[in-house]
Amino acid sequence: MFEQELAAAQNQGGGGLLGLILPFVLMFVIFYFLLIRPQQKKQKQRTAMLSALQKGDKVVTIGGLHGTIVEITDDIVVLKVNDVTKLTFDRNSISHSVNANT
């Protein structure tokens, strides 16, 4: 009789372990699809936008400064803000590109 109770307790212990691990796995899956995956997509889009920048593009910096790209290298962007003012920025400080239609 004692052996049967021991075997039943061991079977319940295995199910208890699965019951403890399953919520954590489900939480990770939910976090992946709600937080991690969309963030990776945004990062890919941003990287593609930064690599597609070229001279003459109108851009907005993270600080909100609007300008037109005059010079561009791998990590530096020179923006023409008005007729005489040129400012140098890090390429990663570009927030987004602005279409000429807007």
TrEMBL record:
SMART domains: YajC. GO terms for cellular component: plasma membrane. InterPro entries: Preprotein_translocase_YajC (IPR003849). Keywords: Cell membrane, Membrane, Protein transport, Translocation, Transmembrane, Transmembrane helix, Transport. It is found in: Cell membrane. The chain crosses the membrane at residues 16-36. Its main location: membrane. It is a single-pass membrane protein. GO terms for biological process: protein transport. NCBIfam families: yajC (TIGR00739). Belongs to the YajC family. PANTHER family: SEC TRANSLOCON ACCESSORY COMPLEX SUBUNIT YAJC. This is Preprotein translocase subunit YajC. It comes from Paenibacillus ihbetae. The lineage of its organism: Bacteria, Bacillati, Bacillota, Bacilli, Bacillales.
